[in-house]
Amino acid sequence: xxxxxxxxxxxxxxxxxxxxxxxxxxxxxxxxxxxxxxxxxxxxxxxxxxxxxxxxxxxxxxxxxxxxxxxxxxxxxxxxxxxxxxxxxxxxxxxxxxxxxxxxxxxxxxxxxxxxxxxxxxxxxxxxxxxxxxxxxxxxxxxxxxxxxxxxxxxxxxxxxxxxxxxxxxxxxxxxxxxxxxxxxxxxxxxxxxxxxxxxxxxxxxxxxxxxxxxxxxxxx
Amino acid sequence: xxxxxxxxxxxxxxxxxxxxxxxxxxxxxxxxxxxxxxxxxxxxxxxxxxxxxxxxxxxxxxxxxxxxxxxxxxxxxxxxxxxxxxxxxxxxxxxxxxxxxxxxxxxxxxxxxxxxxxxxxxxxxxxxxxxxxxxxxxxxxxxxxxxxxxxxxxxxxxxxxxxxxxxxxxxxxxxxxxxxxxxxxxxxxxxxxxxxxxxxxxxxxxxxxxxxxxxxxxxxxxxxxxxxxxxxxxxxxxxxxxxxxxxxxxxxxxxxxxxxxxxxxxxxxxxxxxxxxxxxxxxxxxxxxxxxxxxxxxxxxxxxxxxxxxxxxxxx
Lengths: 221, 316
What we know:
The complex is a heterodimer of chains A (221) and B (316). Chain A is mostly helical and 221 residues long. Helix content of chain A is 77%, strand content 0%. Chain A has one domain (6-218). Chain A has helices at residues 6-27, 31-56, 59-86, 99-123, 132-148, 152-174, 179-207. Chain A is globular. Chain B has 316 residues and is an all-alpha fold. Chain B has one domain (3-314). Chain B is built from 12 helices and no strands. Chain B is globular, with a radius of gyration of 19 Å. The A-B interface holds A 1-4, 6, 9-10, 12-13, 15-17, 19-20, 23, 27, 99-100, 103-104, 106-107, 110-111, 114, 130-131, 133-134 and B 154, 171, 173-174, 176-177, 179-180, 183, 293-294, 297-298, 301-302, 304-305, 308-309, 311-314, 316.
């Protein structure tokens, strides 16, 4: 334990906080709290990227940290917040069935991700290699969250959280992706957010609800 | 074992025993401030105890010995628990008596007695409270044990002294697993001490009671002892939390010069913990009883996650 430098400990701490937030999202019923959790996830991600940049002297990671902070810590949560307000679902509470079971499945996913990442972590030489398991776990947990939700907004939050997990995996395994790729993904996420925002209104106009279960009526008989 | 250590242990136990009611007093004072009330002051629990000790006890006709013995057993269990947790100095004479698993056992013994005594008189509310207490207890206990195991795997010992010495008196290390353990511990603390959101200590509605329902039949000195034991239990849990998660400042054995700082830090930490608890209680609403298993299940999950992250992120 003592051979891990302090920056490494900080990164591990951020990793476990991200995992904590992933579980909190999984069990959160309120839409607004979900958006707040997502903003917190973005802030922690930006902080951990800064720490990685500082400890590995990779200057381009500072840019990704700044990009993460602005995009995922501020812009996307603000857009989501505005959408939730415009859609008038500020105090919407989703009925989630059987949270303990979902959490247990989540725990199994974490064990699975940790085992999956173990051999890769052994090969990687980065300071952050042990956090790869956590990153994969948060990707899988966000995926699980998307599966268990039926409303549109929580699903989109799950999608964005999954992107956060992927970003964290990239920083922890290989010190981030090339700048071009990163900028491209950031733009993609932003555009996707806008399009999904328009979709929300279209869905509500068509079905009078944001519950995606209604889409099952669309099939041809 | 030196005579000074023994003396210090005795003095510490007495001081903690006498000062314990200050803690619930402080918590309710904080709650009052947060709700824009003046509050009754931190000394209110003492006035309550004084009043209760001056009254005559009323016992039900069918009450057996168990019913009368319970307050004393509960009180001694909680006092023992407070004495076993390293508060100011590690390595006191009582410390080797029991490890963390034994400490959980002491809490379990107290829980068993209070539940049996609640069912003893045969009132409906008593047995309802006892059943609910056992429901909460059996879910909280594994979560607490997993939290303690996380600390134990870090320090390679189940002895609280070794745990505190590893966490506090070596150089500073951040343990990600302890974040999960801390969240789980706070949830267990809320449940075990009958606080909102699991139980409401100030409720008058019998149907929503857990802890209060069990002690409805008690009066006078018995009730006083039960209330005092409640304060001691809160103190034991809070000092245990401090010892596990923020043990900085707890003095090494024989290091008497560090003692004044340790006392100041302990009072500060307890005051902060109390204020934090009051904040949690003010911000949250009481859950339905059927939500409690979900809440405790989450606590257990977090504790298990803590153990998992320890093996992933911290194992050398």
